[in-house]
């Protein structure tokens, strides 16, 4: 599948890099551009110029320029130029500086794969168990405090919370951080965003607090839960899942994974990326979470609308939704492979209810609807299936989607949060379209 | 709001213990939660949580009506790259390039790519809107009909189309919105001006003042002597704005009574003082008082801007007398007229009045050179006036005059002035490039680029930096054949300038290059698409 400018933009560390890359994505700026099935390379500028190389297997890149950004504007420009004017690159044998680099990358990927296969170092089980117990007690203390705090809140009532300062929520949330229960902390911070936001905020806040209480209730009985739900609750409370636990899970799924959409959010000092993938054969969904500091790119290059022929290792839990790319150097599949989505909205909602049954705290799940149209009723936009069933949709790209689809059915990918669908991508006339 | 939320809002301290739920699956679920060791608050929270999950799992979709789809469901023929380039062209930074690209699309018998339709329809510039409406295509019109903010793109089409019959137009005139009625009026004035005026007369008194004014403005289409009685009637309208519009329309009818009265009044102001053997000379005698009958013709007694009363009256009346009146009256050429009044104390006011009259009445083909050339020479000289307001007025007037020249004359007139003037930077070049048709001719573009390069190479003063602001316009104006010339490296003599001037010039050259690159890429995409067909 040819890569579009929108997709290239998702690789960039910031918008400035995209703009700078567009400005130099002109053949006149490049001394030479070459391509072979494994790599794309070019020499930018005059004289010896900057040597830019791109690994076409996973869009990894390197450049001899001094920029600290990754990928730099030259790498992005080379990709942009190649996507717009493929004839600008000559098909030839790569020079040494490219083939050496590609070989090193392949060797490194192989080494890492070997390392992953090697048995882990022996660990001091006793010390590990002691540390785990200490942590568990710490979390338990925090959870007990939160339970009491919630009881106090309910005794006083939710009315009047609009007048409370942010510190009212921040204080217990920070206490949860101290107790190493960051999952609970972020749920408490979310309360501050709900209060006063829209006329139905009391309903939403009550439901949100109720779900926090359900989580606390589950944690208090964690030993009685099934292993999957046990893992799920631990992750929701704030335990991170170690590589060892993922390996112990041993749920590795090889498939041609279509990246149905992606959402990147800027935090204060880092960026988080949620990529939703769907397996072609397995029709299984996967969520890959990645984090990077503000200036760096994410460890894995995942481009929406592409298909990765790779193995995913799933995290333990009742949903088995979150995953990580297990085999490094996963290959992009040239052929356009789009897995089928849910045929109707009813079918999707049944699937969603099933997911909720497995994990009642699930924030959002991916949604792929096979053949929907867009429609408007009383100023609210909906996706509509052939049975006239509609789900509310929330996006700033509604007019673009409408312009491209012309009111005709198309396949839509998005995230359903229980209230509204946030589109992430669409297939219109066989072409993938980004909606973020 | 359900009972549980109500209780949560009040607080258990005030509302008491959680009531036992009655029946139903969620109630059974809530009741199954062990309540014994739990506090009232915890029990309430657990019930709220269970209810929230139950409701989320059982959410039912709405039943919604469908939107009538666009009848065309074929794939968009444009490449993604072309769509992205056009989207860039419609962005704030490159919007000056967009009209040219729209024209290219029209010339190639294509319509705008679908992906950029929302961006295109969001445009605010009237000039660009008129171009966009012509290359929207079916999909664009279909989309515009779904968003009231985009009605501008279809209002004229929905109310009036080429095949509308007279009864259909009449129906739309009687039943349509004000925007639709205006479109109908413009259309009917094209076909049958008398019919249009009669329709307007029928309803005029019952329309709101603002609508009356707008509709009257639309009478400008095919305005003729037959409209005069109605316009005279409008001079008694209760709205000041309607009266002003009526006066302005009457003043554009060379044979109207108002213009005739203006001619008679103006005859007293200008007197020929030279004998037959002397050089032609005029004297201006402005009116001393404001006669009360002037009020009926809408001549304001007091000026709105900072000028004297006499000068205001002179300007107002002379600017409403067709220019040819003067050459006929004194049996002389426009050049003689200008030279004849040049040294009079009131000369500048009279010439300004003539200039405004030219703008109002336009120039007949045979008058373009006769009037245009001396006026152009006069206002070029005014560019060196020591009063900045006069220089600004001269710049604006020259731009207007250039716009009145036939398109094929504009480039040559401007280039001639650029070459002849000893100091090219005194020309308000950005204003003067505006009336030129884009893309420019290759000859003009190359000459312009050569002049700009010379200025940059030989001068390092700030006037050059200001002058170079026109490079952005050049980026939108130069033709494709001149792109290589524009993209050649520019010798900016940056070492001899201060840092800020160098940076400013580099930025302007970059803006030129960005526009040229964008257009070049787009043309290439268009070529590819045309070749594929």
Roughly how many Å is the radius of gyration of chain B?
34 Å
How far apart the termini of chain B lie comes to: 61 Å
Secondary-structure content class of chain B:
mainly alpha
Number of strands of chain B: 3
- What count of structural domains of chain A? 4
Helix content of chain A: 25-40%
Beta percentage of chain A is 25-35%
**Overall pLDDT confidence of chain B:** 86
Keywords (chain A): Metal-binding, Zinc, Zinc-finger
InterPro entries (chain A): Znf_SWIM
GO molecular function (chain A): zinc ion binding
Region (Disordered) (chain A): 109-128
Can I get a quick summary?
Chain A is of the alpha+beta class and 436 residues long. In chain A, 39% of the residues lie in helices and 26% in strands.
Write the layout of secondary structure elements.
The complex is a heterodimer of chains A (436) and B (533).
Chain A: H1 5-11, H2 15-24, E1 30-35, E2 39-44, E3 50-55, E4 60-63, H3 73-84, E5 90-91, H4 96-117, H5 125-156, H6 167-178, H7 182-194, H8 201-220, H9 227-237, H10 243-249, E6 252-266, E7 270-279, E8 285-293, E9 307-314, E10 323-325, E11 331-333, H11 345-358, E12 365-377, E13 380-384, E14 389-392, H12 398-405, E15 410-416, E16 421-428, E17 431-434
Parallel strand pairs in A: 1-5
Antiparallel strand pairs in A: 1-2, 2-3, 3-4, 6-7, 6-9, 7-8, 9-10, 9-11, 12-13, 12-15, 13-14, 15-16, 16-17
Chain B: H1 3-10, H2 12-15, H3 25-32, H4 40-57, E1 62-63, H5 80-89, H6 98-107, H7 117-121, H8 126-134, H9 137-144, H10 155-159, H11 166-175, H12 178-191, H13 193-204, H14 209-218, H15 228-234, H16 240-251, H17 257-267, E2 270-272, E3 282-284, H18 309-318, H19 324-330, H20 334-341, H21 347-361, H22 365-382, H23 388-404, H24 407-420, H25 429-433, H26 442-458, H27 462-467, H28 471-477, H29 483-487, H30 499-532
Antiparallel strand pairs in B: 2-3
Helix pairs in contact in B: 1-4, 3-4, 5-30, 6-8, 11-12, 12-13, 12-14, 14-16, 15-16, 18-21, 22-23, 28-30
Region (Disordered) (chain B): 1-28
Pfam family, one (chain B): DUF5691
Keywords (chain A): Metal-binding, Zinc, Zinc-finger
């Amino acid at each position: 599948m040819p890569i579009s400018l929108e997709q290239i933009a998702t690789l960039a560390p910031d918008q400035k890099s995209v703009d700078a890359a567009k400005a130099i994505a002109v053949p006149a700026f490049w001394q030479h551009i070459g391509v072979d099935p494994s790599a794309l390379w070019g020499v930018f500028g005059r004289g010896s110029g900057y040597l830019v190389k791109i690994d076409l297997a996973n869009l990894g890149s390197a450049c001899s320029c001094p920029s600290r950004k990754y990928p730099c504007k030259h790498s992005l420009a080379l990709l942009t130029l190649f996507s717009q004017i493929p004839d600008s690159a000559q098909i030839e044998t790569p020079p040494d500086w490219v083939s050496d680099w590609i070989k090193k990358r392949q060797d490194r990927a192989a080494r890492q794969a070997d390392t992953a296969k090697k048995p882990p170092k022996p660990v001091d089980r006793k010390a590990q168990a002691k540390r785990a117990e200490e942590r568990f007690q710490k979390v338990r203390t925090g959870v007990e405090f939160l339970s009491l705090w919630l009881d106090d809140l309910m005794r006083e009532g939710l009315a009047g919370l609009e007048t409370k300062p942010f510190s009212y929520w921040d204080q217990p949330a920070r206490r949860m951080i101290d107790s190493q229960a960051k999952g609970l902390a972020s749920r408490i911070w979310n309360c501050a965003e709900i209060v006063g936001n829209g006329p139905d905020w009391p309903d939403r806040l009550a439901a949100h607090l109720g779900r926090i209480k359900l989580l606390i209730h589950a944690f208090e009985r964690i030993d009685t839960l099934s292993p999957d739900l046990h893992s799920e609750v631990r992750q929701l409370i704030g335990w991170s899942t170690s590589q060892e636990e993922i390996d112990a899970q041993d749920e590795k799924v090889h498939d041609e994974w279509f990246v149905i959409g992606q959402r990147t959010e800027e935090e204060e000092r880092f960026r988080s990326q949620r990529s939703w993938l769907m397996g072609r054969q397995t029709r299984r969904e996967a969520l890959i979470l990645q984090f990077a500091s503000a200036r760096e790119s994410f460890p894995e290059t995942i481009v929406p609308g592409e298909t990765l022929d790779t193995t995913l290792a799933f995290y333990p839990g009742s949903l088995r939704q979150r995953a990580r790319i297990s085999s490094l150097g996963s290959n992009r599949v040239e052929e356009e492979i789009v897995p089928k989505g849910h045929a109707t909205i009813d079918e999707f909602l049944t699937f969603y209810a099933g997911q909720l049954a497995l994990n009642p705290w699930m924030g959002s799940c991916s949604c792929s609807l096979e053949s929907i149209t867009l429609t408007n009723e009383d100023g609210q936009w909906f996706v509509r299936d052939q049975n006239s069933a509609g789900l509310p949709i929330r996006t700033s790209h509604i007019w673009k989607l409408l312009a491209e689809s012309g009111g005709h059915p198309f396949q839509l990918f998005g995230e359903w949060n229980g209230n509204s669908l946030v589109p992430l991508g669409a297939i219109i006339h066989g072409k993938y379209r980004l909606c973020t | 709001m359900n009972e549980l939320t109500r209780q949560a809002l009040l607080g258990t301290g005030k509302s008491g213990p959680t009531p036992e739920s009655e029946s139903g699956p969620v109630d059974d679920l809530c009741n199954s939660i062990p309540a014994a060791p739990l506090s009232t608050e915890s029990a309430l929270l657990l019930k709220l949580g269970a209810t929230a999950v139950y409701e989320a799992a059982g959410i039912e979709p709405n039943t919604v009506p469908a939107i009538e789809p666009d009848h065309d469901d074929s794939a968009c023929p444009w490449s993604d790259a072309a769509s992205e380039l056009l989207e860039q062209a419609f962005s704030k930074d490159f919007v000056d390039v967009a009209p040219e690209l729209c024209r290219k699309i029209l010339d190639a018998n294509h319509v705008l790519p679908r992906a950029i339709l929302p961006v295109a329809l969001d445009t605010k510039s009237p000039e660009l809107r008129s171009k966009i409406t012509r290359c929207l295509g079916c999909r664009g019109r279909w989309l515009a009909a779904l968003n009231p903010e985009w009605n501008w793109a279809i209002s004229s089409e929905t109310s009036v189309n080429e095949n509308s019959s007279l009864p259909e137009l009449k129906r739309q005139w009687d039943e349509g919105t004000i925007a639709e009625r205006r479109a109908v009026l413009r259309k009917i004035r094209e076909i049958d001006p008398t019919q249009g005026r009669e329709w307007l007369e029928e309803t005029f008194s019952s329309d709101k003042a603002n609508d009356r004014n707008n509709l009257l403005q639309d009478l400008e289409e095919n305005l003729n002597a037959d409209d005069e009685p109605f316009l005279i009637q409008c001079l008694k309208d209760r709205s000041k704005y309607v009266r002003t519009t009526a006066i302005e329309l009457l003043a554009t009818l060379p044979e109207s009574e108002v213009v005739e009265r203006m001619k008679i009044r103006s005859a007293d102001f200008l007197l020929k003082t030279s004998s037959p053997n002397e050089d032609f000379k005029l004297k201006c005698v402005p009116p001393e008082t404001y006669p009360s009958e002037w009020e009926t013709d809408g001549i304001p007694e007091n000026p709105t801007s900072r000028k004297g009363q006499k000068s205001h009256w002179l300007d107002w009346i002379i600017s409403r007398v067709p220019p040819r009146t003067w050459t006929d009256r004194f049996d002389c050429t426009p050049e003689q007229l200008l030279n004849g009044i040049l040294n009079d104390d009131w000369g500048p006011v009279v010439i300004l009045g003539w200039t405004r009259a030219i703008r109002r009445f336009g120039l007949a083909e045979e008058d373009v050179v006769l009037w245009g050339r001396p006026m152009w020479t006069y206002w070029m000289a005014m560019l060196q006036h020591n009063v900045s307001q006069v220089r600004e007025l001269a710049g604006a007037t020259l731009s207007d005059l250039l716009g009145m020249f036939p398109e094929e004359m504009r480039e040559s007139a401007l280039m001639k002035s650029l070459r002849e003037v000893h100091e090219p930077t005194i020309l308000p070049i950005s204003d003067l490039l505006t009336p030129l048709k884009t893309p420019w001719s290759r000859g003009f573009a190359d000459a312009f680029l050569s002049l700009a390069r010379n200025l940059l190479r030989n001068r390092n003063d700030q006037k050059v930096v200001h002058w170079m602001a026109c490079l952005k316009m050049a980026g939108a104006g130069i033709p494709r054949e001149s792109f290589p010339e524009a993209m050649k490296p520019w010798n900016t003599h940056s070492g001899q300038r201060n840092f800020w001037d160098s940076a400013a010039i580099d930025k302007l050259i970059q803006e030129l290059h960005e526009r040229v690159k964008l257009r070049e890429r787009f043309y290439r995409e268009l070529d590819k698409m045309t070749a594929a067909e």
